[in-house]
Amino acid sequence: MGAAGRRVLRAGLALGALALALQGLRGWLASKRYEFTPAEIAQLARHHAGLDHELAFSKIIVELRKKHPGHILPDEDLQWVFVNAGGWMGSMCLLHASLTEYVLLFGTAVDTGGHSGRYWADISDTVISGTFRQWKEGTTRSEIYYPGDTIVHQAGEATSVQWSAGTWMVEYGRGFIPSTLAFALADTLFSTQDFITLFYTLRVYAKGLLLEANAFFSTLGC
Q1: Where are the alpha helices (DSSP H) in the chain?
Q2: How many CA atoms lie within 13 A of 199 on its CB side?
Q3: What is the largest distance, in Å, between two alpha-carbon atoms of the chain?
Q4: Are 96 and 144 in contact (CB under 8 A)?
């Protein structure tokens, strides 16, 4: 076998290994137990929709800690962090994070919009205040969502998104969460070069992972 043949063989083996890894990942995501459900987060957020967003968020955090002790970051680790992605700018406060789930508070104090991104995760947002407009790929009309409405962004989808100033929401993601970081951090790395925000983002995600690792080992009696 010549050099070209060996390169083709190696490429074929690499693609085969990647396909097997992706299939294994899909199987794991489909069969594992999750701490939260999309319906639970949406219902909780809907219950507080229409309130002042800071009051609503404080109530939601209290209720999540009651229902999921040991899975919500403590107050000292809660931090509002800027997010620049897809041309838009917002702010998030991460409450829970693992390899397969996250719960966060999100919103913007100014009008903003851009590309949603495509993810290996299903993401749902329930509006607390303000308005959110979404233009789905393949359509010629957009939809507007109001307090109490839930927007579902399925894995692999892409949309145009727009928030009015003062729009705040509760977001739940389920899937291979590390895959979302490339989009979430791209503008920070290659446009704003705000490396302090990059540090804050990675730090709070690491804190979420450590909290989940602690919860996992606690169930094993370690």
Answers
A1: 3-31, 38-48, 53-67, 181-187, 195-219
A2: 3
A3: 70
A4: no
pLDDT single digits (tens) 53-88: 999 999 999 999 999 999 999 999 999 999 999 999
Q: What are phi and psi of 53, to 5 degrees?
A: -65, -35
Of 152, 196, 204, the residue nearest 173 (C-alpha): 152
Distance between CA atoms of residues 81 and 92, nearest Å: 5
Tally of CB atoms within 10 A around 180: 19
Kindly report the pTM of this predicted structure. 0.86
Q: Could you tell me if 211 and 102 are in contact, meaning their C-beta atoms sit under 8 angstroms apart?
A: no
Please return the burial class of 35, using the count of CB atoms within 10 Å of its CB with bins 0-12, 13-18 and 19+: middle
Q: Which of 37, 67, 38 is nearest to 150 (CA)?
A: 38
Q: Which two tokens stand for residue 220?
A: 């094993």
Contacting residues for 134 by C-beta, under 8 A, at least 6 apart: 116, 142, 143, 145, 151, 159, 160, 161, 162
Give the three-class secondary structure for 217: helix
